[in-house]
């Protein structure tokens, strides 16, 4: 199964501005790119914090053709939000969730954040590609792309300017190193 992180960030590496949750800082070009690229995946993974921040938008777009999985330590607390086949809350480890999705026949999965989820999937060597839009913004503070220190090696596969914008789209493939 191919697993990609999709994220938008400021030039200085923040996925949320200052103490403000969400991606309201992204350009219209990024929003269009995001909408289009999601159509190439067959499952989405979020962390609980990302779900809480984007709950209304996530729930407005539910469909059986693109189920969403929210990682949380307490799935039972979200039983009222569960929509069978469209929105599930799981307490699996990243590796267990990937195995479960693969066993269910999913082929392309997007990890949509936040920084804790990015870090968990990367540290478990589960990410194949990073699809990152860089917005021409500097925040100085905010939510970083990663929640913890890490040293991952990447190979640039694509770089382009999104149409009618100053937003960059970068695609990197993770170079998977043997585990020590």
Which characteristics define this entry?
alpha/beta; two-stranded antiparallel sheet; 32% strand; 180 residues; Dihydrofolate Reductase, subunit A; eight-stranded mixed β-sheet; single chain; 4 helices
Question: What does this molecule look like?
Answer:
The protein has one domain (7-56, 92-167): Dihydrofolate Reductase, subunit A. The two termini are 23 Å apart. The chain has helices at residues 28-38, 48-60, 94-103, 115-123, and strands at residues 2-10, 14-17, 43-47, 68-71, 87-90, 108-111, 129-135, 142-144, 153-161, 168-175. The chain is globular, with a radius of gyration of 16 Å. It has 180 residues and is α/β, with parallel strands linked by helices. The longest helix is centred in the N-terminal third of the chain and has 13 residues, at 48-60.
Percent helix, as a range, is 10-25%
Give the beta-strand count: 10
CATH superfamily, called what? Answer: Dihydrofolate Reductase, subunit A
How many structural domains are formed by the residues? 1
- Taking all residues together, what is the mean pLDDT? 95
Which secondary-structure class do the elements indicate?
Answer: alpha/beta
| Quaternary organisation | single chain
Weakly predicted, low-confidence segments: none
Give the count of helical stretches: 4
CATH topology: Dihydrofolate Reductase, subunit A
As laid out across the biggest beta sheet, the strand order is 5-4-3-6-1-7-10-9
Q: CATH class, please?
A: Alpha Beta
Q: Mind telling me which CATH architecture this is?
A: 3-Layer(aba) Sandwich
Shape: globular
Q: Separation of termini?
A: 23 Å
Q: What fraction strand?
A: 25-35%
């Amino acid at each position: 199964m191919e697993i990609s992180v999709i994220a938008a960030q400021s030039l200085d590496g923040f996925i949320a501005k200052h103490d403000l949750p969400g991606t309201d800082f992204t350009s219209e070009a990024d929003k269009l790119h995001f909408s289009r690229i999601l159509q190439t995946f067959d499952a989405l993974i979020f962390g609980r914090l990302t779900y809480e921040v984007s709950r209304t938008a996530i729930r407005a777009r539910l469909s059986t053709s693109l189920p969403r999985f929210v990682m949380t330590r307490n799935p039972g607390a979200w039983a009222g939000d569960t929509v069978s086949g469209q929105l599930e809350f799981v307490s699996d480890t990243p590796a267990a969730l990937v195995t479960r999705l693969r066993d269910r026949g999913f082929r392309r999965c997007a990890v949509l954040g936040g920084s804790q989820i990015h870090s968990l999937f990367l540290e478990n060597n589960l990410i194949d590609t990073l699809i990152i839009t860089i917005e021409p913004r500097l925040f100085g503070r905010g939510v970083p792309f990663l929640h913890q220190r890490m040293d991952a090696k990447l190979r640039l596969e694509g770089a382009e300017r999104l149409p009618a914008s100053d937003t960059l789209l970068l695609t990197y493939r993770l170079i998977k190193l043997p585990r020590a």
